[in-house]
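Here's what a typical entry looks like (DegT/DnrJ/EryC1/StrS family aminotransferase):
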Amino acid sequence: MSSKFIKVATPQVGEEEIQAVVEAIKSGRYASGPRVEAFEEAFSKYVGTSYGVGVSTGTAALHIALEAFGIGKGDEVIVPPLTFFATVSAVLYLGAIPVFADIDEDNLCLSAESCRKVVTDKTKAIIPVHFAGAAARMDPIMELASEKGLIVIEDCAQAHGTMYNGRVVGSIGHAGAFSLFATKHITTGEGGIITTNDEEIAKICKMLRSHGMSDRDTHVRLAYNNRLNEIGAAMGLVQLTKLDDLNARRIANSEYILDEARKLPWANVPVAEGDMVHTYFWCPIMVKPDSGRTVEELKAHLDASGIGYRHRYVNPLYKQPVLKTLGLDYSDVFLPNAEKTVGQVLGLPNHPSLPEEDRERVVEVLKAF
């Protein structure tokens, strides 16, 4: 077997992005300007919203969106226990309280049924995360939000181009928050963007990302310096033109590998069916608990075979030690689907530039486990 190491992910950047960045540098305009505005317009059009607000990171997108909707001290925000901690951090930055609801087992996304069980008079918002490129079931989440008067901010950090019932995620809730980190579906190197149909919220987000200024000399809110820059936006404009093609190749690679994996007696593939376009930020696979094998054994097998993988989120987020330092006690929280899932999901190589022979090798290694 080849000794070549197969990477799980790699940035998809070509000469077009390099040339766009060079032109931006030569322009002498580096802070937010016409390229950022063009990227905001193009990205929001792609998602299907009226407005886009470019920011410095995906975490900043969540933080600013929450604050723009008035989320603050003591407010409760429902979040999932399986994702990157930034979803929770954004809530904590504002003095709000994360409230954890369980996930659906098949798509690993926030469960509307579980959300309903934890809504209180203090609940102000829900942040469904479209985990690993799968869409959360947004219809029942939006129905719950409408019934209870809650704000829904979609965390789309892992789901650029994912669709649910014919709509691109980031256009279904009251706002969407995207990350543009190096290994996401598309990248600006580092960055993020907020999408919304609410003109007033978009205006507030633009103030919050830039020192709370209503004009060059007037500061009307205490705010941040979280702007997206022209160099990143130049890169993002090119990347956005490639997104559908990159996603098509990512999907093809993932579905080929996972279709083969489903034939294996030990493998569990957590992908929901229905009217959803999954864009596979991860190519997710789990080991069936009754198979006599473990995820640690699979990791060792992949390591020995030179196959890269993602293995993250090994504990529910409500067990992160930082929460105790903030005086938050989640010791009585036990979410059964999350507890069964954390630490069990591996992401296999699936990036758009994965050669066919590498894809075949990944399958052969899985078969040999």
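Residues 230-261 form the longest helix (32 residues).

More examples are in the samples folder.
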